[in-house]
Amino acid sequence: MKKLSWIFSITAVCALLSCVTINIYFPAEEVRNAADRIVNEVWGERNGQPAEPPSETRPAPDVGSWLRLLGPTTVYAAQDINVSTPEIRAIKEAMKQRKAALQPLLQGGQVGLNADGLLAIRDLAGLDLRSRGQAKRLVGEENSDRLRLYQEIARANDFPDKAAEVQAIFAESWRQQARRGWYLQDASGVWQRK
To answer: What Pfam families does the database record attribute to this sequence (predicted)?
Structure first.
């Protein structure tokens, strides 16, 4: 009986020491880094400055007391964001091709970035009928590609239900990397020049 109690105690200690909790989370920081790279790739260098390479941030190891080492450990699964599927590459290429036609509209204030990071027609005054139609078409195509990009990134990285979160992260990046003089719309619908 004493031997069985001793074996049970050793087994319980081993089980306690081997407890590991793995948390799978939405990789917001990794998506943010990918968003910054993609926006910079599509729009080119930001304000004439070369792009900064994304910094690798790793959490500092938790060096606690030796007693904490005996308890369960939490491990976070890092996720490398996949942004190089054929679909994503095709969407990025289409957006790059459209950039030259969109930038004069953004700089002139006819088109701006709304709070969701999508393009919006702001004011078409001063444009002829043909240019108005072209501006509307360009904005529609760009917004369609942006939404497809967010969905594809979410799908390619096995969190298809998180496309809205991907969009929110990209919206922040589009707005931060917007050039001086472009119009940005705040959450209340007010347009302001950057």
So the answer is: DUF1318
